[in-house]
Amino acid sequence: MAKLKLSIKNYEIIIAAVLFLISFWLWTLPLQSSHVPFGEGDAAWQFAAADQMYMQNHASFRIPSYLGNWYYGFNTILGPNAIEYPPPYPLNIALSQIFGGGRFVSAYIMFALLDMLASISLFLLIRKLYGILPGFLAGFAMVFSMRDIMLYLWGQRGSVISFTFIPIALYSFYMYFTTPDSDKKKNVYLFTTILVVASQYLFHIQGVIVSISVIILFSLFMWLKNKKFPLPISLLKSNWKIYSISVLLLLVFTMPFILIYFGAQATNSVHINNVSRLFSWYKINDQPDYSSGNIAGYPIIYFSFSQIYNYWYLPFLMIGIILLLIRRESKDLLMLSWVIGVYILIHLDVIGYFSVQRSARMLLAETALFYSLIAIGIAGLPSLLSNFYKIKESSIKAIKYLLAVIFIILLVFANGKAAYSTLNGAYSPILRLNPYQMQVSEWIASNLPENAIVVAKGTLTYPKIRFMLAVSERHVTSTAEYLLSVGATSPKDLYYMIDYSDLVLLGQQDAINSQLEWEKSNFQNSTLVYNQNNIHIWHGNIKVFTNE
Amino acid sequence: MSNKEKTPSEKSIFSDYAVLAFSAALFTLSIYLFGLTGFKTIGFWFIFYIVPSYFILKYFGLDSLESFVFSVFITAGILPALVFFLNLVVPSLIVSAVIIFITEVSAVILLYKNKK
Fold this sequence. Notes:
The complex is a heterodimer of chains A (548) and B (116). Chain A has 548 residues and is mainly α. Chain A has 27 helices and 7 strands. Chain A has a 5-stranded mixed beta sheet with strand order 4-3-5-7-6. In chain A, helix 11 (166-178) packs antiparallel against helix 12 (185-201) and helix 12 (185-201) packs parallel to helix 15 (240-254). The N and C termini of chain A lie far apart (75 Å). Chain B has one domain (8-115). Chain B is built from 3 helices and no strands. In chain B, helix 1 (8-59) runs parallel beside helix 2 (64-87), helix 1 packs across helix 3 and helix 2 crosses helix 3 (93-115). The interface between A and B is large, with 72 and 59 residues.
């Protein structure tokens, strides 16, 4: 048997595995504490989109009306009851439910697994381009990325997943671009690039916009650097079959779903808006809601460098950029393209192309970029210093590893601790469906007609109402006014649920009494069809269409 | 990215052991955290998504790390898309997924048979 010699390079697969396992443990913490679904409204929608496929054992472009009524008429081309994301994304979750055997647990394991992948994606890119130490530092930092964690918890999971693809899309294109034309692997990287970008598109288009923008910028830089057009006609001619197949592949996986994106209502008109924002990386103190601590639905900490990263990392980030600018090798140009690409995309609100809410979500692309630059800065600082001071080769290594150890300690005790406490404490039992709400949801599923609209009052939070929609497979909502106004439903299909279960669990007797009075005065002529565990459902002669 | 310090067979042995160790650790962790449901969910993901595509990508000359990471990302979108397309014709998600899996495994067997 051949003697197994191990070099540092051999350990790369072990490091990727360790990053994966740590992420899996950490990101599933909210599920470890309780198997009840969690998140905000978007989380409920995305769970419901998958769950209806699981329940029907079928996937299609159409969704049941109980879900379609949520954003009734959202897609102006496909019409009502059209799915809002390409079906392959929720289908991942549905397949895990089918083969994993757990309606909630399997679904949420798959959500966590797909959302946590930024660490291995970034590890591959930075490890291959800059070496194992910066690769590990960048990948390890992404395990604790608070921005990704926040959006994952809230439920913008398709976006988070799509952004995790950026490093691997860039790596794949970089390898395609820099592999000599004569090498057969060039074609392999062409196909992996096409398939990675197509796969990314199937989760959310925003991540694809970043990948494509950076790829275009990098190609331009390389054109300038090499003074040679990146895709020569001669290569296209000699390799036309391969390029034709790759374009065809891209079209096969993207075109069937294009109307899902194009049909979504556009709400922004192009106009110049607050040019001063261009002179900041991401200015927030000019936003109308700044003083309230919430900007376009995001809390201030989402934008805070000190809370997303750490001010101690800032010098290394700057050093990382300086090193890239000094060296300007192909890999450095890729990273610089990423910097410029993200800068452009997070400022698209200036021309009104994006709302601030959308451009803020683009900041997801910043985290992996910044951690890459920080890691490059840490690994490159000693060599940079050796240009100015006489430093022994062994000392350069020692300083590099010392800085890496300090960075890891800071990461674990600052970012890691924050990530752990956020994930471990996320969505306490009262913020998830309680057993009585689960029970009534199952009753609704078995006893109310498919087109029933259930207005819920008394439930503690809006997301819980929406999770009851998902579990009951009926349209449970906070208001039916819009659906009535557009004729999507009629008063005879309306049910009204008065939910005291959360108030009882919280011991809020005054609120219970006041809600009881309100109930008495509003449902005298209706029929009580459900009365268990402090939850009442009324039907017939419903005169109240909202819970406000 | 020189591999001077080891022969391709040594690298392959190590990589295969590493991938095996990773899968064992992942299964153990999923059972520990989520019991049988965790095991089945991760097992499904690993067997349906990762294993066949990992071998296909390795066949085309990518190294172990590339094959593993690419298999994770490519299959996340592409495999359910294939199941979705098939499900437009075959009226069952389960049957569609099984057919896609059989096709994947057949592709791996065919590729490696031709290699020999």
